[in-house]
Amino acid sequence: MITLSNRELTVDVLDPADPVDAARQGWRYCWGGYVWQVKDAKLGPLLSGPEFPKPDPTAFNGQGLPESFRHRRRADSSPYTWSGTTGLAIGAGTLATNPAAIGQSPDSTRLVEPARWNVNPAADHIVFQTRQSAAGFACELTRKIELRDRTVTSFTQLTNVGETSLALEWFPHPFWSLTQHRARLRLPAGTTLAENPGFAVAADGTLTFKRPFLTASDNQFSLLTLPPGRPLALELDHPRLARVTFESSYVPAECPVWANANTISVEPYLPLRLAPGETRHWHVRHGFVAR
After folding, report:
1. Which residues contact 49 (CB under 8 A, 6 or more apart)?
2. Hey, is 100 helix, strand or coil?
3. What is the pTM of this model?
4. Among 22-26, 74-78, 144-148, 229-233, which stretch is predicted with the lowest mean pLDDT?
5. How confident is residue 65, by pLDDT bands cut at 50, 70 and 90?
6. In angstroms, rounded to a whole number, what is the distance separating the alpha carbons of residues 160 and 144?
7. Rounded distance between C-alpha atoms, residue 25 and residue 16, angstroms
8. β 86-89/82-83 pair status
9. Which candidate, 68, 63, 69, places its Cα nearest to that of 12?
10. Is the pLDDT of residue 140 over 90?
11. How far is Cα of residue 287 from the mean position of the Cα atoms in its chain?
């Protein structure tokens, strides 16, 4: 584990070169810059996960503030960065799958060669850099995790260094803590979602649970409809803080919300299409506001 700390917070970030941390990561999330936990100097851990507080959650579920470059389309599992049975999971490594399971079952996907990272820690940030190529695609990826006061910012830079265009989806998957088995999020006014048994959104954008979720397998997935043309900014209640804030530097193309008995997550998707030689930059920011 690599840590950033100040008088207020400690940020635990998984180390791609550490075998113990590598076992936590798998093929779903980006290895470089994976924030595993944020801890308050007085209050302890502030983040959750689908299996939290289990100390060894499955790599697919994870915990904390993971981020993901989708190598298959969320809506229908059609391939982005695949050629036959070989795929490129940007930030994770080279993938393989059974030919009969292409696009059918994520359980058939396996990581056959992890990405190699250069890691450069500093007093208030850590920079992770990797260069990957597989399945006819190639990229350079830089991730920076920065701690300033009570704010954690995740910066990403992706460059297409191959001869083939890159098309994929990226999304953060923050796992926020519940308050007495429920959550209350203040989303932008005008946010809506389709009728579902788990969540309700009021006209002012406040999302609440219709019922508590009882187990890790008791969950709800829904798609939020956000006001168009603006980056996402939200606040949510926290059991030990005044609130947690979250903002994206980009306008989400779509935005799932998911929760179970242990956590809630809002996942603003960023579609990416990079021509050879093209670079994109973006960031997301968390504020942990003390009482």
Report:
1. 57, 61, 62, 63, 64, 175, 262, 263
2. helix
3. 0.94
4. 74-78
5. very high
6. 18
7. 9
8. antiparallel
9. 63
10. yes
11. 16
SS3 106: helix
Round to whole Å and give the CA distance between 271 and 252. Answer: 8
Report the Cα 23 to chain-centroid distance in Å.
18
User: How does strand 243-248 pair with strand 233-236?
Assistant: antiparallel
**Across the chain, what does the average pLDDT equal?**
94
Distance, in Å, from the CA atom of 223 to the CA atom of 245, rounded to the nearest integer, reads 20
pLDDT surpassing 70 at residue 107: no
Helical H segments across the chain, by residue range: 19-22
Q: What is the pLDDT of residues 269-281, one digit of tens each?
A: 999 999 999 999 9
Confidence band for 108, pLDDT divided at 50, 70 and 90: confident
Separation of alpha carbons 27 and 33, rounded Å:
14
Measured at the CA of 255, the angle between CA 251 and CA 259, to 5 degrees, comes to 145
Whole-angstrom distance, CA of residue 89 vs CA of residue 40: 33
Specify the pLDDT at position 237: 97
For residue 103, name the pLDDT band (cuts at 50, 70, 90). Answer: very low
Alpha-carbon gap, residue 262 to 219, rounded angstroms? 10
CB 284 within 8 A of CB 250: no
CA-to-CA distance for 87 and 133, rounded, in angstroms? 10
Give the Cβ contact number of residue 197 at 10 Å: 8
